[in-house]
Amino acid sequence: MTIVVGRAVELEFLRWLGERLPADGRAPLGLRDDAAILELSGPRVVTTVDMLTEGVDFLLSQDDPERVGRKALAVNLSDLAAMAARPVAALVAMTLPRDGALKLAQRLFEGLIPLAEEFGVALAGGDTNTWDGPLAISVTLFGEVSERGPLLRSGARPGDVLLVTGKLGGSRLGHQFDFTPRVREALWLAEHAELHAGIDLSDGLSLDLWRLCQASGVGAILDVANVPVSEDAARWAVRLADGSTALDHALSDGEDFELLLAMPREAAERLVKEQPLACRLTIIGECVTGECAGKAGLWRREADGSLTPLVPRGYEH
Amino acid sequence: MTIVVGRAVELEFLRWLGERLPADGRAPLGLRDDAAILELSGPRVVTTVDMLTEGVDFLLSQDDPERVGRKALAVNLSDLAAMAARPVAALVAMTLPRDGALKLAQRLFEGLIPLAEEFGVALAGGDTNTWDGPLAISVTLFGEVSERGPLLRSGARPGDVLLVTGKLGGSRLGHQFDFTPRVREALWLAEHAELHAGIDLSDGLSLDLWRLCQASGVGAILDVANVPVSEDAARWAVRLADGSTALDHALSDGEDFELLLAMPREAAERLVKEQPLACRLTIIGECVTGECAGKAGLWRREADGSLTPLVPRGYEH
Questions:
Q1: Spatial separation of the C-alpha atoms in residues A312 and A296, rounded to whole Å
Q2: Which of A5, A76, A277, B122 has the most other CB atoms within 10 Å of its CB?
Q3: So what's the pLDDT on residue B6?
């Protein structure tokens, strides 16, 4: 059979993957037919896609392909967590540099498969290509809405408090690859508490908070002294030595992949007292009525109570 | 707000797209939340993804971005047609060269949107990035199975005849961009005839026929004199002047995006007689029992009835 490099790599890769993957009753066809068929529990599908690329989201000269493959799925799991949706299946489309394409594809999947198994994601299909360009990998993830319905960005109300999972900042020291998407936390919280709105922190707390506020038509006051700053945010500030503080990084570094939630104060305070999850829950501020004198309505409140405008600042990648 | 090129392009593009697109009740969230929510008519989703890349699937120096954007959706529509599934919604992930990224994204969508409208596909979300590499565009398409269930590659039986839509070969002269995915034809045929198996011709008739046979565990005899050869296949053979014939191109050129179906002879003969569709239907062979003396079980039959092995040969892209 005369076929060319791209297809030959795809066939060889699919043969390897067929042996590597466990059979999964929910998506039996995607690897050997024109499309995958997913059997869900209801007619409502939550779906998201992210494309990661060399030089933007990773550097193969520094980052193991296994970590890159894991991240390609993890960022999408984080998006589903933000909707409080249960992951079901994924499609993986890749375009690989021609040299060493098969080995690279296998290593990407050696990182991706364990995370898929951990979160019950069936790898239902995809598309494998080669080219003269650098690696691009795009994962589409499908999920089901829980009984509580999807968690949207747009449900925050004045008076809600802002709750965040984990610690923020300095993700470039490793967390950007090794984070655990907050799927379990989101599902648990959606089941046990009244959540009004949610977003995952992919581009920096201040920028993603601004997005949540924009979608909800509210403003927000961020109690900066309460923001949980990671040890890596402090290390990163020291390493950069550019005058930035650990708090600056907690406010504006991207790829924390923690959850930012808006919810009633009482429920949030109960959660913070009980700390029912493996990761810490922290109240970092509150929602207020929308714009203020034409300003974006985002404020930072210092420990002494003084208010200054908070400038949304995103991760420069 | 300090954000960088990639995000700035994405925000600007989403603003443009929000105005450009009609509102669609089925997928109201994808452009402004962490994920899209699709409301389907049942719990079974058919889904497929294809990533197209510069230098492999198109050359922006020759091919208008509008045609590239159209193709990125059309190839996925062809995959759904092969499953006899009804398209519902799509996600579009792109990584654009930094220079002129916004304009390129808009032109891609100016080609993609009319096709989406023609086939009732809601553009439900996506991911827009920039980098120093060439264009990569990945479309994930979602569909619903018709009442007859999905059409698989694996259902062909010995005695079935092979039916093909349209004409084959020479797609590089333009058809690879301008083809109409056979969605309507597939749905009509699935409703009005008994179909056993189907595949879309993306990599060349002989190779895709081999795939259908492999999936079904049958062999096949192709009546080469009956293969509908396109005018472009003849033109392409003349242009190449490498000794190849128009028939060679009809057998092995990729990107015809026609349907190859296996079905009972009587029903196929009725269809061929009635020609109920806008494109021609042609019987080009029959399925036979599986392997023959260890050979792949693919045969070509000349007009005089002589049989020789048919070598599956795919599109070299």
A1: 9
A2: A76
A3: 60
